[in-house]
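Please fill in the sequence for the structure shown.

STRUCTURE ENCODING:
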């Protein structure tokens, strides 16, 4: 049984990935500092899979603690989710974002080298593409200047991995390093059990938690940012991807075991875009709740439309997104109701 270290495994995407890993027969060690998650998630995972993941509360910016984590657990591979992820906050606190996101990646790579661990899956984002010149976006598209320090940490992390993989490939004394970077489009939805889901701290930035909190009466109204875009209904278009489909991509990426001189990048999206109004319509249909929303000015920095070509992941990882937008809105709502009644 392979042992996988999942950093940030108590977070939104991390927790769903831990479930998918355990269900596929992997042994999991979660490392999380709980800065944006709750330890209760670990027991919720156990309720779903009946398997207790090992949990280590650890700050990966501490080199000594990170190396010790690797020495104790000696993982076969790492899935590295742990990072700060709020775009707006990253503009306010850039140094904290650079320090946390970059230092933790460097420490993880150092820990891997210490124990001879060769495989890492990195959690990247479609934000590296900026405003794409064409649609759908393929992995061959150039990366653009990042719109926020958060986005820049993803770009820099991909560069660090690229240099580390290249050096390992060309230097006989180094261990091979096999790195896969998964560029997520818009992850949303929740596990169908409603035992785990997204737990935004404070006022949500993302569309789906804002929708479910408005429907639940926590927020008075959803502002739809802009209805004058060059799209069929005037609202922005995104490639929303169910978090359980996304989780399965990580399991398949672990099996992708090619030694090469570069980091293999994969878009993880459905290949289909939906507008904000289409998401609202799906939510109302699946929840039976009328949503109070109004049009508001455009949000600064928003891309008009973006969706992926997931063809490369389909071909090389044998992965495909199966869940629909209705599955996403339905599970997100079930999760919101579960949080309310907890
Ligand atoms: N959005 C919105 N109201 C909100 C939050 C988001 O209209 O309260 C829109 C946003 O302008 C974008 C889409 O929903 O067009 C997805 O935004 P989100 O922040 O979820 O993801 P992003 O693609 O910006 O990372």
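FILLED IN BY: designer on duty
SEQUENCE:
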């Amino acid at each position: 049984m392979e042992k996988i270290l999942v950093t940030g495994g108590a977070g939104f995407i991390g927790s769903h990935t831990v479930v998918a890993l355990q269900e596929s027969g992997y042994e999991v060690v979660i490392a999380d500092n709980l800065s944006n998650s709750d330890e209760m998630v670990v027991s919720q995972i156990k309720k779903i899979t009946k398997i207790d993941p090992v949990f280590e509360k650890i700050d990966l910016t501490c080199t000594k603690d990170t190396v010790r984590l690797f020495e104790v657990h000696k993982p076969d591979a790492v899935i590295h989710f742990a990072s700060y992820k709020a775009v707006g906050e990253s503009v306010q606190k850039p140094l904290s974002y650079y320090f946390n996101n970059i230092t933790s990646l460097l420490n993880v790579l150092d820990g891997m080298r210490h124990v001879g661990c060769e495989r890492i899956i990195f959690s990247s984002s479609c934000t590296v593409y900026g405003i794409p010149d064409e649609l759908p976006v393929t992995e061959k598209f150039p990366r653009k200047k990042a719109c926020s320090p958060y986005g820049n940490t993803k770009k820099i992390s991909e560069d660090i991995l690229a240099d580390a993989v290249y050096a390992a490939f060309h230097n006989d004394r180094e261990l091979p390093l096999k790195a896969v970077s998964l560029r997520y489009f818009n992850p949303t939805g929740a596990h169908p059990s409603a035992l785990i889901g997204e737990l935004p701290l404070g006022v949500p930035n993302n569309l789906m938690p804002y929708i479910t909190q408005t429907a639940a009466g926590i927020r008075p109204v959803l502002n739809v940012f802009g209805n004058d875009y060059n799209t069929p209904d005037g609202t922005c278009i995104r490639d929303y991807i169910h978090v359980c489909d996304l989780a399965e991509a990580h399991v398949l990426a672990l099996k992708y075991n090619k030694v090469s001189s570069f980091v293999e990048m994969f878009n993880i999206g459905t290949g289909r875009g939906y507008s904000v109004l289409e998401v609202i319509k799906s939510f109302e249909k699946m929840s039976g709740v009328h949503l109070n929303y109004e049009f508001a000015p455009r949000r600064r920095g928003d891309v008009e439309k973006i969706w992926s070509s997931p063809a490369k992941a389909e071909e090389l990882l044998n992965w495909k997104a199966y869940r629909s937008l209705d599955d996403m809105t339905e599970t997100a709502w079930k999760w919101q109701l579960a949080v309310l009644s907890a």
